[in-house]
Amino acid sequence: MVSKSGYLNRLVFGKSSQGKNGGSIKIVLDDLPGGTKSFELVVNFSYGWKIDVTATNIAPLYCAAKFLEMSDDLQQGNLISKTEAFLSFAIFSSWKDTFQILKSCEFVSPWAKELLIVKRCSDAIAWKASIDPKAFTFGEDSNENLKAGESTDDWWFQDVSTLRIDHFIEVIESIKRRGVKPELVGSCISNWTVKWFSRITFGFDNLTVPKHLTQKLQRITIESLIKMLPMEKNSVSCNFLLRLLKLGLVMQINSELLSKIERRIASMLEQCSVQNLLVKNYGDKDATYDVGIVIRVVKTYVLFALKNSVPRVCIVGRLMDGYLTLIARDINLEVNDFKSLVEALPTNARSCDENLYRALDIYLKAHPSLTEEERTSVCRAMQYHRLSQDACQHAMKNDRLPLKIVTEFMLIEKVKVARSKSAIESNNRRTKTQTIMKVNKGLDGGYITPQKEIKMIRKEVENMKMQLSQLQMCKIKLQKQFKRSCIK
Fold first, then answer.
1. Is the pLDDT of residue 467 over 80?
2. Which residues, other chains included, contact 270 with Cβ-Cβ below 8 Å and sequence gap of 6+?
3. Which of 127, 282, 344, 368 could anchor a disulfide with 203, C-beta 3.0 to 4.6 Å?
4. DSSP 397
5. Measured distance CA(344)–CA(339) in Å, rounded
6. With bands split at pLDDT 50, 70 and 90, how would you rate the model's confidence at 203?
7. 356: number of CA atoms within 13 Å, CB side?
8. Reported pTM
9. In 331-399, which ranges are E strands?
């Protein structure tokens, strides 16, 4: 064995020169890649016994051969050249073997990376993912759809999603270099994230976190996923980015990365649907959907939306009203969250408040225990003049709305009716006055005295004062009714 290993040869020679003549030599190999299993295979090979080399042990064995310096310089057909030949064949010939080799690299990670085994496997996977899958063999446990003869662009997602994060990053980087479509790369990252974080993404209360996914590793993993996302437009979905943002907030990742992903989601809002914004919570007392992350994104959108034209902001306004209408029925949705989302957009984001009123009415119906003050604060964003006549009439009869809002609407309606009536009467009097002036003009030869004109004007002013006084009395009466109802 010493004759085939340059490393052992040096150790034995060194020990012999230092030890006593005829004494035994003890060598400890604590750092041997692959441990006892690799050492047993090395011993068997050194003594000419048959060894079983497979895709699951070739990487550790190759690393051990390199560690022990078992090159052809010492003996032709030594272990390095033998394992190198098998490794190259397995990586490029079989899809299944490539993943088994990459999986076995987890136990000899530093050596596997230094000896480029991980890179070679990643490049092989990327190459195979970018060509016709019929060009190579898969193995017995490969993707069932492929063995059935079915082929789609994402056929490789299932196998790639089994990789550990560091190996997954290597594969994705190799795939990017091969020029695979950004949409496929984004979907692959999404698929991997869902598979690895499905148990820990949305419910931490009753969770047993896997040993290999400590909280620190989870944080590093999320940061790595965000960094390697393709930057091309529409390469990842808004819903996936929201889930990633939720993960990032829970894991308290780097604030710059959080801001980066918030800005990216905000830039996509104008193309989103309501369904894209739905990210579930799984706590018993939590709202069905996570409203907090949507509020964050909308506020980020507003910061740069001020530069956009009003019609584009209105697109997001309609989106938010649709989202509000959908989540309003949730009995666990906190009033402050609902109110924050209502007020997150500027006034010009809504051309009218019809859909907002519908969402508010649904929310008040689903939350009958709200106090008068809470109902008033929720409804404050709704404005009378931005509702249709039918919506205004409905609102004034809606007992779910706070009394203050209903009273204000009724007062505005009365003033509106009074003004309309006053305008009609004023027009009638003006027409009548003009007629009298024409008659007088005909009778008096076209002359009207200044005294008569002043008298008519004074009469009109008196009538206007009387109507204004009536409106004032009406307002005072309504305010008294409102105060009495509040005291009760």
1. no
2. 312, 315, 316
3. 282
4. T
5. 8
6. very low
7. 29
8. 0.75
9. none
Supply the pLDDT for residue 28.
Answer: 76
* Residue 249 CB contacts under 8 Å (≥ 6 apart), including other chains: 258, 293
Angle at 148 between CA 142 and CA 154, to 5 degrees: 65
Residue 75 in tokens: 């003996």
* Residues in Cβ contact with 252 at an 8 Å cutoff, skipping those fewer than 6 apart: 219
Residue type, 379: C
Distance of alpha carbon 45 from alpha carbon 75, whole angstroms:
12
In whole angstroms, what is the distance from residue 33 CA to residue 271 CA? 52
Among the ranges given (10-24, 136-150, 392-406, 443-457), the one the predictor scored with the smallest mean pLDDT: 136-150
275, 245 contact by CB (below 8 A): no
* Residue 352 token pair: 């009218």
Using the Cα atoms of residue 418, residue 420, residue 421 and residue 427 in order, give the sign of their dihedral: positive
Burial class (CB in 10 A: 0-12, 13-18, 19+), 477: exposed
Q: Comparing 35-39, 78-82, 115-119, 395-399, which segment has the lowest mean pLDDT?
A: 395-399
Contact of 306 with 348, CB cutoff 8 Å = no
